[in-house]
Input
Amino acid sequence: MAYEDKFRSDPFTPGLFHCLICGKGVRNKHNHFRTHFPGDHRCWQCGVVYSRLDKLKTHLRTVHNCDYIQRTQWMTFNLNTSNW
Ligand SMILES: [Zn+2]
Ligand SMILES: [Zn+2]
Output
């Protein structure tokens, strides 16, 4: 999904962008855009993608026997994996 046109760059702060959806100032456009359109919820264990978060949660619980964690939390202890 295209996200570039959903942001306006801040005229005073290089590298800062304002989200046209919520008005928030962000630096990582892609990450922020995903918070509005969490269209694909990917299992970080096996890579399967669900369109609904609750399905992914159920998948994690039943298949991997673990709880859903936010992608950002997951990133903090899996910094080497970048294929998201
Ligand atoms: Zn936003
Ligand atoms: Zn899985």
In short: The first helix runs from residue 29 to 36. The chain has three helices and five strands. The longest strand covers residues 7-9. The chain has a mean pLDDT of 79.
